[in-house]
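Narrative summary of target 7.
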Amino acid sequence: MKPPLSRRRMLQQCSAGFGSVALAALLAREGRAGISPAIGATRTLRVPALAPKARSVIFCYMSGGVSHVDSFDPKPRLLKEAGQPMPVPVKRTQFNNNGTIMPSQWEFRPRGSSGLEISELFPHTAGMADDLCVVRSMTSKFNEHAQGNFFMHTGFPFLGYPSAGAWASYGLGTESDELPSYVVLRSGGSGVPHGGVGLFGNGFLPAVHQASVITADEGEPVRDIRPREAAGAQRRRLDFVGGLDREFLREMGGDAHIEAAIQNYEMAWRMQSAVPGLCDLAGESTITKRLYGMEDTDPKTAAYARQCLLARRLVERGVRFIEVTSLAYNLGGGNGANPWDHHGQVKEGHGKMGHQVDQPIAALLADLKARGLLDSTLVIWAGEFGRTPFSQGSNGRDHNPYGFSIWLAGGGVKGGHVHGATDDYGYQAVDGVASVYDLWATVLQLLGLDHSALTFRHGGRDLRLTDVHGNVMKEILA
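Modeled conformation, tokenized:
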């Protein structure tokens, strides 16, 4: 084993190595240096294996489980048989406090030229009906929040696996030199969904692919993002440390995780100038801010609107995968981690949550479309499961993973389209049944990636986002 780096050798190498370190960083960005893309630590932009329809993904995650029978899956039979027992066997629920059939709390109407039926819970989103592809037959394997959240994000029900955003970063790299390829937006009042920040992690992929969390509120978007010393002094210090790190990397014979750490230091340096500019909305017009709902009297709606506007700005800057998180109200069971989780007072709780996210998301779709970005941006709206068509207690709904609704828009999917169906009660998917694996297989395909070929060797096995499952939902592709 080689002896550790001596003080003399360190000074000799680092005094003459600043220029070469800087050059190496520049070359790595252009794909002419660094480790092999097959190892996956580089941020270098890569050519998709398939013809891509989308360049970026915006994931509007509805943590807690939105009631599909109150939003995107109309079931007239619930109204006809309201108050009656379910006529089919009921599987075990989270709390087993099951009541009788409960109809939708909002009226459904056909929307747009497509006639897509959407409830009054989402009046603004309904205005974009002809751009939505609603999957009414999504299913999950898990009935509990943490497992459901992990499953929806990673394809596995527990900690330690890469998020879909990390896989997209690993497969395609980034188009931005100054921002991470995977960003999670949150506001000060929004909690991380049950499961914690591991939901956004890189798992066994190099750390360069994990999400960077940006707080969308006015103020400091990332902790310590503003340098506390002159830029020149900080750059010299980073180059000095970088020289030591690269010498260590050479002595180790190359290591993807060390390389990823070095690249993260460089990215943090570049983010210091890029992130404050990203979050400065002074250049956005009053009309645009009003369109998103930033002037809404509900501060949580205004905060969510700011996230959605920042999501558009991140797409414009070449960020590959963006997740937007919602904020909770202290009522009806919803909490900071699961704001849509209304085991009681579903009318009030879902009503407040619908108001929070509806206008900002509709504005995001309209704004992307007006700027010519929706065709190349895939927007996904989903939670970890749906809710039961029968009541929990008197006025809530319990978890339902057996059939629920999500929607996609832009990025190569059919607009004004419905895929699959649940039974007459909205309880179980019965037609065009889709899984989380199918969802991510389809998303990767739209990004130009073959989900079965996007793998990483770990623990003696080639692992992937879709595990050993998943079929592309070809019926929803435009």
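Residues 54-230+266-476 form a domain with the Alkaline Phosphatase, subunit A fold (CATH 3.40.720.10).
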